[in-house]
Cell division ATP-binding protein FtsE (Patiriisocius marinistellae), 227 residues
Amino acid sequence: MSQAVLEFKNASIFQRENLILDEVSVKVDKGEFVYLIGKTGSGKSSFMKTLYGDLPLQKGEGHIVGHNLKTLKEKDIPALRRKLGVVFQDFKLLNDRTVKDNLFFVLKATGWKDKKEMEAKIDEVLDKVGMKTKNFKFPHQLSGGEQQRVAIARALLNDPELILADEPTGNLDPQTSVEVMQVLQEINNNGNTILMATHDYALLLKYPSKTLKCDENQIFEVVQKTV
């Protein structure tokens, strides 16, 4: 029996009073790698923001990692976000802290207490993204691709049930994009569920997978043609 980590039924997504997406019915099962594509302004970001509690779901049904988005209260948002790993286009690393201290900051903020356990967890996630030997560096000493690897490691800290990657290769050159994509693929092969919003159609061809498209206020699954 497949297990949905994300499911919307007849949901409508608004930015203030503007309808962005209507009649959204989509499902992401545990272990899947799913792309979210669409032109700028088609609603990808609004959809992503709804998933991590930045935009309220006003109409229809939406469940994500055991939370009901329709009845989500502000006080529940931190608990929701602990079950999600979010990777942004612009890395969002703290520039005045080393890689290790960036990750320490997140663990402390999410309630970890034991220093040994924290250090072990940081080593584990940095190892997964090939950045363990650079944990003493500051973000400005790293390339864009390395910063994004650290951002992916940060997203893995609390063993999320779902990783939301919002244009994770948007600021990277094609070669680096492929390297970051390989990291995400490997993480997915280890059992992590990933929903990745992207403009980069070259990656879809290179790594075909289930694809959802935002277009004309709708989200629908597209069948990829084999190349």
Q: What stands out?
A: The beta strands are 4-15, 18-29, 33-37, 59-64, 67-68, 84-87, 162-166, 194-197, 210-215, 218-222. DSSP finds seven helices and ten strands in the chain.
